[in-house]
Amino acid sequence: MSVLIAIGCIIIFGAGIWCYGLAFQVDGDTLRLLVFLAGILLNSLALFIPWQLVGQSRK
């Protein structure tokens, strides 16, 4: 189960990194900001998931 969580989080983290690069290519300041913030949220989610799911099994 931990391997599936890790693979999913790596994919989410990669999507967040991709959003950072995409933010410099889209037109419009508001859309640029939203895409960049989506990247931040995706990377935060990729770090949050293992700490919550895998961390609970150690208790």
TrEMBL record:
Domain of life, source organism: Bacteria
Regions that span the bilayer: 33-54
Keyword annotations from UniProtKB, A to Z: Membrane, Transmembrane, Transmembrane helix
Name by which UniProt lists this protein: Uncharacterized protein
